[in-house]
Each structure stands twice: as structure tokens, then as C-alpha cells.
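Quick one, probably user error.
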């Protein structure tokens, strides 16, 4: 039975409908029968996929794009107050709904699992959604990345489970009331919204307090921030919550006993809370991705899915776009795309690829994301890049931010050089010059990573095209 569409969502208009989070909600609403419309600043495969489902997608932002009878306007935190469509909606008295409010409304009536954490949310949510689907449980899901093609970041399923990525960046995950919550890690990030790690802890506590009474929290037993948060939560007497920890720590309830790498895959062995052990494959490289799979296993088990079947189903996960995604190979060089943009993520992905590179070198084309993040973490980014055999650092991708005086990619390249990294000069032509520069750096057997949360992802096919030419 298809859940009823909230009246405010019957004719929604999405500003920035092509974004990862926005497009997923638009897709589910379209599948439920809503008359969805929206706009984005440029056309994309995601926009085309939404049109194929029946949504109306216009390119550019113009007040005229708001159709008569629009029931609400859905925005994300990236939409500026002076956006003409947003300004028109407010002038006309059309309700303005944040993306997270729309997602929370979609989850109403479902048994929801919300995956939070500074890193790994998209991968863990994807792993769990794929595994539940493999088991024939027909979950709904909303993910911050595409599983196997444009528009695959969300789905309206006929089952009772709804798996969602819970974004802490703007505190929007406070709106969710899951039956099972997952916290993968807790670190200071999103410096435009959080002034200190204490604010991060407080934000995650609010998220946890919203778990339905009698629900379950799955939390990392290894990561320092997550352990501090767990201690704070256990000291509270007002939470009706079961806490299940996972990781390699001896006190973990779901303990990782072994992670065995095998090229771009790995096998993980765990001991469950009941003392039983099981092993299963993970079709992406790196210890951190194996731990994501264990978090997905613990979350699904908490929702009542048998552990043995779920573990085997997790092996059917083959990756999500931009998470160490192999784009292709040319001239003996593999090109892999990575969404990593925080130093912890960068180090984890580089260590994973180092283990898969064999005798080849690891070369990175890195695009910093946000001026505020570069200002606060540029030194650590440079230190992470020292794990590569060579790196090329592009200009900062601004996204929603205006430039900050004195904050440039030099903060990263200087730090990388100081930590012994081989830093290749950025091409004078910027991104357009990257394929030629990489062709001059790479040799057969090397792995090239395009890394960052911005449009650096567009470079993979272009690099492959250039490598394929003599």
C-alpha cells in the first residue's frame, strides 16, 4: 500500500532539484503520485531521470518557474535567501519546507533506520538498502549518492523499512525519529555551522534523543568521538534506548575480528553479541568500508533481519557513485573517483587504494571543498595527501560559500610539501588542463584518484580519454 502524500507535498516545487538529497526526495514523491516540479542551475543526468519519472524540471532559477497551485517549495541549506524562486514563494505565501522536513514526512508510518556520522553515511546507507532489497524486503531509501546510475539514490519500496542518510552538517537530522539510529563517527566538520566539537556532541545527542522509545542506537566502539558520545549517552537517565557498539575494540558488542583485503575487495569476520561468528565479502576496498558494512549489519539485525542472511546479502553491494568508484582503465592506468574531502576520509581512501595498488603508484587530483573547511583543515588535508606518490591540487570549489581572504589551495600544497609529498603544479588552464597533466605523470600500473566533493568528478572520463591517446 502506497503511503498517503501529506497535503503540503501534493504539488511540491524543489529548488536545486538535481542535488543528491533533493533529487531523492523528489523521486520518492513522484513514485507516490505527487505532481513534482523543480529547477536547477544546469541540466544533468539526474534531472533527465526525474523527467523520465514524470517530474517537471526546468533549468535556471526564475520566479516564473513556480506553477499555479504549488503546495510548497522545498529547499536545502545551500539555497540562498535571494534565490528568485524562494523570494517569490515567500511573497506569495507558499509554505517553504526544508529538505529534511520533507524526508521526515516521507518516513512517517515506516520503520525507519537513520544513518549519521561525519564520514561513511552514504556508503553505509547504500550497503543496508541494497542488502535489504536483495533479501526481498522491498525497503524505501534515500541516499546521498547514486548506487548504479543517475536517479538511483532513492526508491519508494512497498516494504515497511525506510533507510535514510541523516545529515548532521546543518543539524537537519534533528527532525528524524528513527527506530534504529547509526552513528559511525563524530568529528568536527562543517565549520560554518559548528564552532566547536562540544557543539557537535550536543547536536548528536539531540539526534539520539529523538530515537523512538525502546529503539536502538548502533555506534562505533573504535572512534574517539563516538566513544565520548557513547559515554555521555550512557550517563543520561532520560533515554529509553538500547546501545549496541561495533568495531575492533575488545568491548564492542559486534566485534570485528578480521578484515582481509583482496585487491579492490575484502572479507570481514565478526563476532555477534550472542557469541556466534560469521564472515562475508565486501566489494569495495579498505578497512573503513568493511567497518561500514558491519555497521549496516548491526543496524539491520537491530531491525529484526536475521544476521546470517543479511551478512551474505551485504556481499551483493557493489559500490556507490564517487566512493572509490572505478571509472575505467586506459594505457594500463586505472582511474578511480573518490568523494573524500575531509582529512580523515582522504587518509582512509588513500590507505585503501595503497593496499590495492600493488607495485603501482597512487596519484591524486584533489579539489578542496569549501573555503571554511580549507581554512580550518588545510594543513591536515596536505598531510593526508602525503600518503600518495604524487598529487595535483586544484582551486577550492566554493559550493555555497563566498571566498575568504587569504584562504587558497596553497594552504594545502604548502602542508603537503612540508610532509614530504610530491606536489605537481596545477595546470594554468585549471581543470581543463588536468587530463594532459595526468597523462604526463602516469605510467602503466598506476592508480589515479580524482578526489573531492565538487565537480572534480567530471575529470575521470576526460583523463581516460587522454590516456587512451598516444
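Nope, works fine. Designed sequence:
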Amino acid at each position: 500500500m502506497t503511503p498517503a502524500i501529506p497535503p503540503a507535498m501534493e504539488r511540491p516545487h524543489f529548488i536545486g532539484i538535481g542535488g543528491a538529497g533533493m533529487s531523492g526526495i523528489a523521486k520518492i514523491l513522484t513514485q507516490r503520485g505527487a505532481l513534482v516540479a523543480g529547477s536547477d542551475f544546469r541540466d544533468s543526468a539526474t534531472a533527465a531521470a526525474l523527467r523520465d519519472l514524470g517530474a517537471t524540471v526546468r533549468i535556471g532559477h526564475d520566479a516564473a518557474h513556480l506553477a499555479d497551485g504549488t503546495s510548497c517549495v522545498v529547499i536545502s541549506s545551500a539555497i540562498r535567501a535571494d534565490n528568485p524562486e524562494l523570494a517569490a514563494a515567500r511573497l506569495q505565501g507558499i509554505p517553504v519546507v526544508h529538505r529534511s522536513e520533507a524526508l521526515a514526512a516521507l518516513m512517517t508510518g515506516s520503520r525507519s533506520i537513520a544513518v549519521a556520522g561525519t564520514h561513511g553515511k552514504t556508503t553505509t546507507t547504500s550497503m543496508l538498502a541494497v542488502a535489504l532489497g536483495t533479501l526481498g524486503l522491498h525497503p524505501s531509501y534515500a541516499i546521498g549518492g547514486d548506487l548504479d546510475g543517475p536517479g538511483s539514490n532513492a526508491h519508494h519500496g512497498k516494504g515497511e523499512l525506510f533507510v535514510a542518510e541523516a545529515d548532521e552538517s546543518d543539524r537537519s537530522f534533528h527532525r528524524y525519529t528513527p527506530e534504529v539510529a547509526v552513528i559511525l563517527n563524530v568529528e568536527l566538520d562543517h565549520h560554518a555551522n559548528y564552532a566547536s566539537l562540544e557543539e557537535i556532541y550536543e547536536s548528536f545527542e539531540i539526534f539520539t534523543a529523538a530515537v523512538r522509545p525502546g529503539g536502538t542506537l548502533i555506534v562505533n566502539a573504535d572512534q574517539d568521538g563516538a566513544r565520548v558520545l557513547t559515554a555521555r549517552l550512557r550517563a543520561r537517565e532520560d533515554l529509553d534506548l538500547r546501545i549496541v557498539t561495533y568495531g575492533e575494540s575488545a568491548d564492542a558488542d559486534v566485534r570485528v575480528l578480521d578484515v582481509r583485503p583482496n585487491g579492490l575487495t575484502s572479507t570481514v569476520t565478526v563476532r555477534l553479541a550472542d557469541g556466534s561468528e560469521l564472515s562475508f565479502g565486501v566489494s569495495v576496498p579498505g578497512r573503513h568500508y568493511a567497518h561500514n558494512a558491519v555497521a549496516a549489519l548491526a543496524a539491520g539485525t537491530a531491525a529484526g533481519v536475521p544476521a546470517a542472511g543479511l551478512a551474505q546479502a551485504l556481499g551483493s553491494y557493489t559500490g556507490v557513485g564517487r566512493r572509490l568508484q572505478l571509472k575505467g582503465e586506459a594505457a594500463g592506468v586505472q582511474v578511480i573517483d573518490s568523494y573524500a574531502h575531509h582529512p580523515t576520509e582522504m587518509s582512509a581512501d588513500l590507505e585503501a587504494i595503497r593496499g590495492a595498488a600493488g607495485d603501482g603508484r597512487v596519484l591524486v587530483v584533489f579539489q578542496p571543498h569549501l573555503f571554511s573547511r580549507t581554512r580550518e583543515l588545510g594543513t591536515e588535508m596536505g598531510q593526508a595527501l602525503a600518503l600518495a606518490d604524487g598529487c595535483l591540487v586544484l582551486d577550492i570549489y566554493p559550493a555555497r560559500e563566498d571566498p575568504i581572504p587569504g584562504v587558497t589551495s596553497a594552504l594545502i600544497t604548502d602542508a603537503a610539501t612540508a610532509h614530504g609529498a610530491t606536489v605537481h603544479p596545477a595546470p594554468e588552464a585549471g581543470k581543463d588542463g588536468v587530463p594532459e597533466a595526468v597523462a604526463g605523470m602516469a605510467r602503466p600500473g598506476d592508480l589515479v584518484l580524482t578526489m573531492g566533493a565538487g565537480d572534480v568528478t567530471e575529470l575521470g572520463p576526460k583523463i581516460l580519454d587522454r590516456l587512451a591517446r598516444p
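Residues 7-98 form a domain with the Rossmann fold fold (CATH 3.40.50.720).
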